[in-house]
Specification:
The complex is a heterodimer.
Chain A lengths: L2 H4 L12 E7 L4 H18 L3 E7 L4 H6 L4 E2 L1 E6 L4 E4 L5 H8 L7
Parallel strand pairs in A: 1-2
Antiparallel strand pairs in A: 1-4, 4-5
Chain B lengths: L9 H8 L6 H7 L5 E4 L4 E4 L1 H24 L5 H4 L3 H7 L4 E5 L4 E3 L7 E5 L3 E7 L5 E7 L19 E6 L1 E7 H10 L1 H27 L2 H16 L3 E3 L2 H8 L3 H13 L3 E4 L2 E4 L2 H7 L3 H10 L1
Antiparallel strand pairs in B: 1-2, 3-9, 4-8, 5-9, 6-7, 6-8, 10-12, 11-12
Helix pairs in contact in B: 7-12, 8-10, 8-11, 9-10
The chains are: A alpha+beta, B alpha+beta.
Amino acid sequence: MSRRARKPRVPAEGFTTVVMLRLYVAGDAPNSLQAIANLEAICAEYLKNGHKLEIVDVLENPRRAMAEGVLVTPSLIKLSPQPPAQMIGNLSDKLRVLLALGLKPSVE
Amino acid sequence: MNIRAGSRSPGLRNALARLPEGGLERQAIEAGEIDAVIDYGSANVILFPAAQRALRIAARRASAEGLEAAFEAPVANSVLAALPRADYQRLLPGLEPVTLKFGEVLHEPGAPIRHVYFPVDCVVCLLTRTEGQRTIETGLVGYEGMVGIVLALGVALSPVRTLVQAGGTALRMSAACFDSELQRCPQLQRELYRYACVEMAQARQAVACVASHVFEQRLACWLLMTSDRLKSPEIQLTQKCLGTILDVRRVSVTLASGSLQSRNLIRYCRGKIRIVDRRGLEAASCACYSSIEALHMT
């Protein structure tokens, strides 16, 4: 394995790239509320101010979700940095969210 | 894959059937982590039963909080404010906030009273017909009273024309609702009988005032009473309207208001009258002003 590959892709400290996230929720439904809370906790711990989060309520705007190919809520989409990623569910599995966001190396 | 949640609703079943086999969506549904499925066919969001229940409960809670906020809001009409809290809360569903415009006629003499009004920041004058279409003002109702008081005394027809003299908000209640609430609530009855006495005494005072005081004094009294009910020193009214309400010729209004203005008691400009020296205007008014205001203190 090359030296570059062994290095954690994004360290918790010193994060500089702004991560753009969009979370699709269904109003105040329980899984949606839980997804918002889980994501906000992860962002506060790992991204500090290095992120932008947009929360879209599909009950108010279903067509936006359709335009992005979202099938169920809650759905989290990482828009940038590349590559884009999608997470489905209430985001309670922190490790999976970190992997999807590229905040943890895929091999520990 | 057998999806447990939402198998009851056909819409949800169809939307679930369209999800890709073995996809992440189906796994998350199996784990119970999904609230809604987006049905691309109808561009609808179909909620899972648990999410539907949670949203219903949240909506009910929000509406209860909204109602609670309305109960907590300061009551802007004195008659309603005098009621015990429980009685006021029971009246609330029957009260509808309405915006009354200047010149609007709420009741015509001899016509049935369909609604009673509890003014909040508007002023309504009670006009008694003299001859033909001529009327004279025999009462003023603002936040301290209720328009349509005769209904509380068992009279269904209005004896006066009630005209909105300063636009604003009022709480309206239908005559039927008012009737049943009056039967149910002795405190409301007591409060309205008290106000009816005040309104009758005010009418008597108005008769005495017309008979014995010069118009300038009457005008000063009327301006003070209106300003009190508006809670503002500024009254929007043309001299023509003032003449119609007080049943005098316009020239009399011009002369009297000119005299008050020359003594720096009021300022009159483009349909707006502003009281600049309240104490001076009270001194210029007849004793009727203090007598009428004393009635409201009882």
